Amino acid sequence: MQLNPIQLFDAESSTFTYILAAPGAVDAAIIDPVDRHFERDLAHLERLGLRLTHVFETHAHADHVTSAGRLRAHTGAKACAPSGCGIAPAEIQLQDGDRIGFADGEELAVIHTPGHTAGSMCYLWRGNLFSGDTLLIGGCGRTDFQGGSAGDLYDSVTGKLFTLDAATRVWPGHDYKGQSVSTIGWERAHNARLAGRERADFIALMAALDLPRPGLMDVAVPANRNLGLAHSV
User: Fold this and answer.
1) Domains of the chain
2) Cys-Cys with 123: which of 130, 155, 162, 204 at CB 3.0–4.6 Å?
3) Contact of 119 with 147, CB cutoff 8 Å
4) pLDDT digit string (tens) for 14-57?
5) Rounded Cα–Cα distance for residues 143 and 89 (Å)
6) Does the predicted model carry a pTM greater than 0.90?
7) Rounded to an integer, what distance in angstroms lies between the CA atom of residue 55 and that of residue 197?
C-alpha cells in the first residue's frame, strides 16, 4: 500500500524534510532534516506519538545545515549517510542496494545516484521516491561541485530512476516554484532538463548554466560532514 510521507519545508533554503511513519506504527524515520527546524521536527514527532529511529541524509548539503547530529543525540536515532559523501560520524554508511529497516515491517531501499554529488543517494519507500537533489520537479540538481558530474547524473536518472514504475511518487529535496510532489511517469515525459534529451546534450546544458556558488557552502558542507554538529543556528 502506498503511503504519503509528512512533508515539511524550509523557506530559506527551499529544502523539504520528510517524516516517514506507517499507520499505527510508533517508530519513524526522517530524511534531510534542517538545523533551524530542530524544535519543529521534534514537535511533529511528539504530537504524532512517534519515536525517531533513523535519520537519513541524501548527501552532504551545501545550502543548509542538517540537524542529524542533534536529533541523534536527543532521540537515540541512528544516523544514516551515503558512504561516498564523507559523513564519517554516521554509524550507518549506506551502500547501493541496502535495505534499511526503520520500523516493524518498514524499510527504505537505497539507490546510489551520483551526479549532484559523487555520493548522492535516493530512497524508495512504499512507492515513494525521495530523490534529494538528483531529480527535482521539472529539473535536477546542479553538478558543478563536490565531485558532481553531469554525465553521472544523466545515467543515474535515466538508468535508475526513470526505470521505476511510472506511478512512483517523486518527493524532491528542494522546490523553488511552489510544487511539492510529482511522479516518475510525469518526469520521464516532461522534465525540462532530461525528458527526451540525449546524454551529450544534457552535459552541454549543465555546463552552460554558470550558477553562482552557494553562499553557505563553506559553512554547510564541513558542518554536514559532521552531522551538523560543528554549527548550530
Assistant:
1) 6-211 (3.60.15.10)
2) 130
3) yes
4) 999 999 999 999 999 999 999 999 999 999 999 999 999 999 99
5) 25
6) yes
7) 35
β 128-132/121-125 pair status: antiparallel
**pLDDT for 62-99, tens place per residue?**
999 999 999 999 999 999 999 999 999 999 999 999 99
Give the other-Cβ count within 10 Å of 117's Cβ.
Answer: 31
How crowded is residue 76: how many other Cβ atoms within 10 Å of its Cβ?
10
From CA 106, how far away is CA 117, in angstroms rounded? 27
In angstroms, the CA 231 to CA 115 distance is 26
CA atoms of 158 and 153, how far apart (whole Å): 8
Q: Is the separation of the CB atoms in 124 and 131 below 8 Å?
A: no
